Amino acid sequence: MLAYAIRRFGQSIFVLVLMSFLVFVGVYAIGNPVELLVNPQADEAERLRATAALGLDKPFLEQYWVFLKGAASGDLGRSFVFNVPALGLILEKLPATIELAVVAMVMAILAGIPLGLIAGLKPDSFIGRGIMAGSILGFSLPTFWVGLVLIMIFSVYLGWLPSNGRGETVMLAGIPVSFMTADGLAHLAMPAFNLALFKLSLLIRLTRAGAREAVLQDYVKFARAKGLSQSRVIGVHVLKNILIPIVTVIGLELGSVIAFAIVTESIFAWPGTGKLLIDSINQLDRPVIVAYLLVIVTLFIAINFVVDVLYSLLDPRVRLGSTASAH
Amino acid sequence: MLHTLRFALVSLAILTLPAVAIAKDREVAIGLQAAITSMDPHYHNLSPNNSMMLHIFEPLIKRDSNQRLVPGLAISWKAIDDLTWEFKLRKNVRFHDGSPFTAEDVLFTLKRVPNVPNSPSSFATFTKPIVDAKATDPHTLVFKTASPHVLLPSDLASVMIVSRASGEKAATEDYNSGKAAVGTGPYRFAEYVPNQRVVLKANYGYWGGEEPWDKITFKILTNAAARVAALLSGDVQLIETVPTADIAKLAKDPKYSLSDKVSNRVIYVHLNQGTEKSPPFVTDKSGKPLEKNPFRDSRVRKALSVAINRDAIADRVMERKAVPAAQLLPDFFYGTSKNLKPAKFDPEGAKRLLAEAGYPNGFALTIHGPNNRYINDDKVAQAIAQFYTRIGIDAKVETMPSSVYFTRASKLEFGYMVLGWGTESGEQGSSLRSLLATFDPAKGMGVTNRGRYSNPELDKALSTALVTMDEKMREALIQKAAEIAMNDTALIPIHYEVSTWASAKGYRYTARTDQYTLGMELKPAR
C-alpha cells in the first residue's frame, strides 16, 4: 500500500510538471497579455515597462524556469490582472466550486441510484418508463438553457429563489460554506440542481443497466429462492455488486464537475473557480491559468487515488499493492 | 395597563415600519459586465476600474456625462504661460477618515502614480508631462511641463487623488482590503471581493451634497443572460450593456426603463498599408499576391468605404444600437468636424473607383475581427463581407477571440482589420494621434496605428495642435486634421456603439458617453 502510494506520488509530480509546461507553451502561443492589459493609448516606454513588470521581457524558457523555481517553494506567481498570488486567488474561490460540485453530486447520487434501481427492477412499468424518459431529457438539454429556464421559473415568475450569487456563509473547520444557512441553501438550490441534472441522468442509466443485468444472475435467483426479503436481495446482493462501475463513474464525474462547472457558474454568477478561469483565459492571465490547472490536476489525481482505495474496499479481490506489482 | 402596552407597541410598530421601508429603499444593487481588477486607483488603467474608482476617489477635474471637463477637486485651472499651469483647489473637502484635503495629497498622488509595483497598465502616461509640481499655498498648485502640454487638464481628469496619510506606506493590497481606500468621493469603501462584488456605503459628509443611496452593491455578472435575469428577478435594480436581443422586450415592459446614449467607442477598419506589395490575406482572385498594395491607393480605400451600407448595419445587425460614423467620435465631442458626414452607400461608385485604381475585376481579401470584444462584432464583419461581394471583391471572414486577435493584429499579421476605439479623454486629437499619426511609438505617436497610414500633412496639423495653448485655435486644428484624414479615408469608420442601461421601475439612470456605470447617475424616479 505504502509503496503503491509513493509510486503514485512520483507519477503525479511528473504529470504536474509536464502539464504546466504544456500550458506555458499554449498561453505563450495564443498571444501577448500586454496587448490586452495595457491601455491602447500608451506609448512605447509604458509598454516596455508593463512587459518588464509582468516578467514577460525574459526569454520563454527563462520565464518557465522562474516559474518552476517559485512553484517548488509553493509560489505559483502573481496574477497579471489582480496583482495577488494566483494560488491564493484560486484557493479563495475553490471552496465555493467544491461546495457546488459536492452538493450537485450528492443530489445526483441520492436521486439517481434509487431512481435507477426502480427503473431497472420494473423496466416496463409506467414509473420505469417515465424515469427513463426524464433521464433522456436530462442528458440532452443543454446546461445553459436549463439554467436560464430555472431562473425564469423560480426567480422571475415565482420569485422564490435568488437568481445569482452565493448566499451567506459560515465557517466550518476554517472553510466558508453556505449550505448551512437558509440564505445559502436558497442560493445553492438552482445551480446545484442545474449541475446535477446531467450526472443524475447518467447515474440513472448506469444503475438501471447494472440492475437489469444483475437480477438475471444466478446468485440473485438463488437469494430469492432462499426466501430472502426483497429489500435484502436488492440492497445487498444487487446493489453492492453493481456499485463498482458506479463508484468509478462518480469519482471521474466529481472531478469533471469541479473542473467544468464553468457554464453553471457563469449563468448563476456563482463565485467559483470556473468563472475565474474563463475570465483569466480571456485576459491571458497565465499565472492564474497555470495555477488553476495544477490545482485541478492535483484534485483529479487525489480523487482517482480515493477511488482505487474504494475499489479494494468494495471488492475483496482487488489488492492495491498486488495490482501495482502485477504490471 | 395591557391595553396601553398594546397601544404603545402598535404605535411603535407603525412608527418604525416606514423607517425600515425607507432604509431598504436606499439600498441598490447594480449588475456590471466586467470584473473590477483592483481597488487601487493607480494600479490598472481599465474602464471598469476607472468607473468604480470615481465613487470613492475624485480627480482634480471631472468629466460630465458628455465627457466635457468640469471642476472636481480643483475649482479652477489656467495656463500661466506655455509651460506653467496653476490649479486652485477646493476648500473644506475632507477625506473619508475626516482629514482635510490639501495640495500635499495631490503632490503625494503625483509621486505615487509612476511607482505602483507590477502595474499592468500604469497611469504614469498622464502624470509624466509634469516635470515639477509645487504648492504655493495649501490650496494652490503650480505644475511645470517640459514642453507645452495643452492636454494636461484632460490628463489629470484620469488621475484619482489619494490621501497622503493613508497612502504613504500603502501597497495595492491595502487598497483592495480597504485599509488605504480612503478618498474624498461620495461613497466609501465597504467590501471588495475580486471577480464577485464591490460594496460601497454613502459618505454623508460629501462636499457635493448627499447621494440618494446608503449602500450600493455592484455584482459582477459577466454573462449577459444572467445579467438580464438578475434584473427581471429583482436581484439588481440596474444593469449595464443590455444585450441587443433583449432590448425590445424590456422596452415594451412597463416595469423597466431603458436609457441609452451614443458612446465614445467607434468601430472602424484599419487597412494595412505597411507593405509595398500585397498585405497579408490580400491577393488577386486566383490567390496570387498583388504587385502593389491596393490599400495605399486612396481611391481603393474610398471604394471600400462607400461600398458599406452603414444604415443597414446600424438597423439590422445592431438593432438600432449604433449610429453610422463619419470620424472617430460623434460630432458633439471636442475636436470633431461638423463637415464630415458618414459615407453614402454607393456600390456603383465603388466599382467605378476600383476600376479607376486599376482593379476593374476587384481582388480578394480576408476580413479579420474579434468575436467577443464589441457589440455583435462578428456579425458586423460578416455584413461588411456581403457588401464587398456586390462590388466584385471576394471577401472571406475570419473572427477570433480578442486574446488571440489583438496580439496578431499588432504584429500586422492581417490586411483588413475590424477594430474598436473608445476615446476616454473625450477629445478627438488623442484618437487621431494614436490611430492615424505616423507610427512612432517612442514619441507616443501612432501607437495603435495598425494600418500604418502615414500622411505628413496630418502629422503636422496634429503636432501643431499639441502645442497650441489657445483652446479655440487648437480645436480648429484638430478639426482640420480630422478632415484631412477622413477625406483621404485613412481608415474606414463604421459606427459608434450605443450603450444601453436598463433599470427597474422607480429608478432612473442618466446614460453616459464613456460607458461608465456610476451610482451617482442612478436616481429614484419620482
Chain-wise SSE layout:
The complex is a heterodimer of chains A (327) and B (526).
Chain A (H helix, E strand, L loop, with lengths): L1 H29 L2 H5 L6 H10 L6 H13 L13 H36 L4 H15 L2 H15 L12 E3 L2 E3 L4 H34 L2 H8 L4 H30 L2 H6 L5 H11 L2 H29 L5 H7 L1
Antiparallel strand pairs in A: 1-2
Helix pairs in contact in A: 1-13, 5-6, 5-8, 5-10, 5-13, 6-8, 7-8, 8-10, 9-10, 10-13, 12-13
Chain B lengths: L1 H24 L1 E6 L14 H10 L1 E2 L1 E3 L5 E3 L2 E8 L2 E6 L13 H10 L11 H4 L2 E8 L2 E6 L6 H5 L3 E2 L2 H4 L4 H6 L9 E7 L3 E6 L12 E6 L3 H9 L5 E2 L4 H9 L3 E16 L10 E2 L14 H9 L3 H8 L4 E3 L22 H10 L7 E7 L6 H14 L3 E7 L1 H9 L5 E7 L5 H8 L20 H11 L4 H17 L4 E13 L2 E3 L12 E3 L2
Parallel strand pairs in B: 1-12, 1-13, 17-18, 17-19
Antiparallel strand pairs in B: 2-9, 3-4, 5-6, 6-8, 7-8, 10-11, 11-12, 13-20, 14-19, 14-20, 15-17, 16-20, 21-22
**Structural class by SSE content of chain B:** alpha+beta
Number of strands of chain B: 22
Strand order of the largest sheet of chain A: 1-2
The largest pleated sheet of chain B is described as:
12 strands, mixed
Q: State the helicity of chain B in percent bands.
A: 25-40%
- SSE string of chain A: HHHHHHHEEHHHHHHH
Average pLDDT of chain A, to the nearest integer? 83
Strand content of chain A: under 5%
Instruction: Please report the distance between the alpha carbons of the first and last residues of chain A.
Output: 15 Å
Task: Report the count of strand segments of chain A.
Answer: 2
Low-confidence stretches of chain A: 322-327
Biggest sheet descriptor of chain A? 2 strands, antiparallel
Q: Beta-sheet strand percentage of chain B?
A: 15-25%
Can you count the helices of chain A? 14
What is the C-alpha radius of gyration of chain B, as a whole number of Å?
26 Å
Task: Give the overall silhouette of chain B.
Answer: globular
